Amino acid sequence: MLLLMGILTAFVVGRSGSSSNQAAVAGAVEIVKNHLRYAQATAMNADLSWGLNFSGSTYTLRDANNVTAILPGDIPQGMTFASTTNPVMFENRWGSPGATTITVTVSKSGVSQTITVTRNTGFIP
After folding, report:
1. What is the spatial distance between Cα 40 and Cα 92, in angstroms, rounded to a whole number?
2. Using one digit for the tens of pLDDT, what is the confidence trace for 6-59?
3. 88, 80, 95: which is closest to 41 by C-alpha?
4. Residue 87 and residue 119: Cα distance in Å, rounded?
5. Contact 97/119 with Cβ under 8 angstroms?
6. pTM score, two decimals?
7. 24-117 has CATH 3.50.50.60 classification
8. ω before 72 within 30° of 0 (cis)?
9. Could you give the C-alpha distances from 39 to 14, 54, 79, 90, in angstroms and in order?
10. What are phi and psi for residue 111, nearest 5 degrees?
């Protein structure tokens, strides 16, 4: 009986750590989506491309001339960020990322979620 309780306890503790990472990644995904939308809106209101440049555990807002700017809010900590196209740039006043759909992956301790930036339209679900 004691052995069974020990096994169940180990299982529950292991699952809660995974659930904690899943919740952290889900929260980080929403922040990254908001930052992508911010870059898109900035490009739509300027005569210059804007986007996010992902680099391991951080990312920056930058323009077409590689000038960086401050993002609203904090960048999620303890995460790893990767993108199929880096930087993710929104090219015009329509907020288009170009002709290729882009995915951004947010990861923490083996838990990952992806964000899709739809080609041509820039839709971020």
Report:
1. 9
2. 443 444 444 445 789 999 999 999 999 999 999 999 999 998 999 999 999 999
3. 95
4. 15
5. yes
6. 0.84
7. no
8. no
9. 38, 13, 20, 7
10. -105, 125
